[in-house]
Amino acid sequence: MKSVNQEAVEQDPQQLHEDLHDIWGNPKGLKALTIVNHTTLGLRFMITGMVFFLIGGILAMLVRTQLAMPDQDFMSPEIYNQVTTMHGTVMMFLFAIPMLEGLAIYLIPKMIGARDLVCPRLTSLGYFCYLFGGIILTSSLIIEMAPSSGWFMYTPLSSKEFAPDLGSDFWLLGITFVEISALSAGVELVVSILRTRTQGMALHKMPLFAWYILAMALMIVVGFPPLILGSVLLELERAVGMPFFQIAGGGDPVLWQHLFWLFGHPEVYIIFLPAAGIVSTLIPVFAGRPIVGYGWVVAAITIMGFISFGLWVHHMFTIGIPQLAQAFFSAASMLVAVPTAIQVFVWIATLWLGKPKMKLPMLWVMGFLIIFVCGGLTGVMLALVPFNWQVHDTHFVVAHMHYVLVGGMFFPLIAGLYYWLPLFSGRMPSENLGRWGFWLTFLGFNGTFLIMHWTGLLGMPRRIYTYEAGSGWEIFNLLSSISSFVLSAGIAMVLLDIALHFRFGKPAKHNPWNADTLEWANTMPPSAYNFVSLPNVETRHPLWDDPNLPHAMAEGKHSLAVASHGRREMWGTDPITGKVREIIHLPGNSWWPLFAAAALAVVCLSLLTKVYALAGVFVIIAGIFLLRWSWENGAHPKAAPDAGVKPGDPPLHSRTMDGPGLWAMGVFLIANGSFYLSYLFGWFYLWTVSPEWQMPETPPLSLMLMLAAGVAVLAGCVVMERLVRGLRQQRDAGLGAGFYLAAALGALQVGLTGWALWQAELAPTQTSHDAVMLVGLVYALFHGGLAVVLTVLQGLRVGYGYVGAHAPFEPGVVALLWRYNVVTFGLLIGALAVLPRVLGG
């Protein structure tokens, strides 16, 4: 095959740049809300995250002011509980993860030699969901209705009995809305890293930062759905009285802890991994040599990702779980220190063998190494069950958490921001202001939280709003509070430095740190399309091995240096080898993500105010917006009606059977499967553990109707598979009729399932058995209905000429949903209809 680098036509680089800008450039004014470019959206994520960080920081200072002296009445107990709950919630959900995702959204395409993320409108939807969800959640502070049950929202403290106001509802609905954003970014990053690396960049040649982000995104995809399920169940309990967490109704409040920490402990590593990725990126640059043990680091990342999902009971040692379980989770909690230590030793070895330059970013990296190692050591201490029993719910745990999360995330984040600031702005940061900011932050942080280890060992509980004089805690709390203001001054100086540098910073030369990765091949600040031409990269250090590469790319001497077709294009490559498979054409700016997110925001507000009819209406409206958005795809005139490519180039992805949309659907279904498996876990957990679980003597669900519905969905899936197989063989005769037949079979499944639900006569507000069964059946009805709608749309698209042998891509995506529905519906029949008959109560 002719190399895609051998372009026959010489083009004027400046004209090519202008043509690409016309295609990729961002609109101004009100239309700026339609931007889908990853550079702009990544910056929006980070700026919004920094605003929420300031809110969370102010709340933290209120807490330290209250605890500075004994018997303080600076805040009432109710307000104090709201402030502490919102501090943890804002920092964990509205700052840490969105900030790191924003950095990844900004950097990943630049690092892997792509022009954008693979689903840019999904990124836009994620941002607006994050923005609206964060506004809804933080608005509860203004009206003094903020949640007050702790950022972990343990039941029954967060249930209707003990939290009758709207605080818990704000948390549950706002956080669920924000989680949509996190999952969107997770799906986007996984597919982009696997399928859009520039040609030649095999998996083992990928920058380490991309490995860390890939692990983080996969963990988000698997780890966030359990919390979404828990939030849905608790909101249903609060809104309509389904007793999922009430013992009297057959529920169990400990189920919430399981669902929360199935998310909560992986989240620690979801936050740590991108920060460690920053460290693994910066240390080789400032040490002036490649990282020692690239393969060991990749193995450590992978192992850490797997082990982190086996640690959730680490947070539940004191609730009365069996000793065998305590021993297992204690061992797993200590085992995770091994991959962490591997990375620390690799970093130290790289510095030892190199010639480190102690520039400003490296100062923050060194601060991270000191603080994170200390936090890791206290983590191993807490993994020991007897010690955990002694310090659980004391300030020792609070101090450990801040050492791991703040030290392990915030210090590398600031190091990364200083490192990439020239890329953002084209200007260098101030070494003097930056060093003042570092030392004030470092000393203030350790002064605040190192002392809190001691107050915890002295027995000071967390989440108390005051304490009596003479307890022995006074001087330590005063020192912690004074240090916290020093910490705040340091952070303020850092933010001031970053803000001032955009106006007064010295202009940066190209690649000012002599870095090795592709993001520094951009202009500073970057263009909307990143690269004029896409290079062939077969080394881990492209800029070290070929310093002239950025100039050659800017002059259009590499691939896809063409703009005459008007498409937004980049490579679609093999996930393992990096060989080019297809040309991915991306959608342009659009209002649909904003409209869909706004409709979902109205749904949240309607649920908060108990206007359920309005919520139902806007669920439908949001669905219409999303379906309308999906209509502009493939061979649609606004997507890519012209499939022409240059001689020697691969086809457009919409003219193949394996485009990125198929991968996006697959990753989304992994997240969906995690949600579904969490549901099944809840069903069997309550069945086997809840003391008041009531299994009816006669199973309420008709086995015959459910089996008939299962046969219908299986038959519809078989029809879809035959149609997709025909398209692979370039046959599309009877394609539209086949889609309508499959949709009819899907409608039959939905009808039979609904009939079975009607006949069951469940009482979901009386027993958790019926409530859990209702949730499972509604889940099946929703997914069955979604498959029907999408299949009907495929039939319509055949009629419009958007789908067929010439454009066979989309049916394979819908067929993947059908396969998922067959598996999940079969499991539902087994769990709800078969096993109760076999095992009884």
From TrEMBL:
Source lineage? Bacteria, Pseudomonadati, Pseudomonadota, Gammaproteobacteria, Oceanospirillales
Query: Localized where?
Result: Cell membrane
Q: What is this protein called?
A: cytochrome-c oxidase
Sorted alphabetically, the keyword list is: Cell membrane, Copper, Electron transport, Heme, Iron, Membrane, Metal-binding, Respiratory chain, Translocase, Transmembrane, Transmembrane helix, Transport
> What are the EC numbers?
7.1.1.9
- Xref: Pfam families: COX1
- List all membrane-crossing ranges: 41-63, 83-108, 128-150, 170-194, 206-228, 268-287, 294-315, 327-353, 365-389, 401-421, 433-455, 475-500, 591-608, 662-681, 701-721, 733-752, 772-796, 817-839
| PROSITE patterns to which the protein is assigned, alphabetical | COX1, COX1_CUB, COX3
Q: Where is the Heme-copper oxidase subunit III family profile domain?
A: 580-837
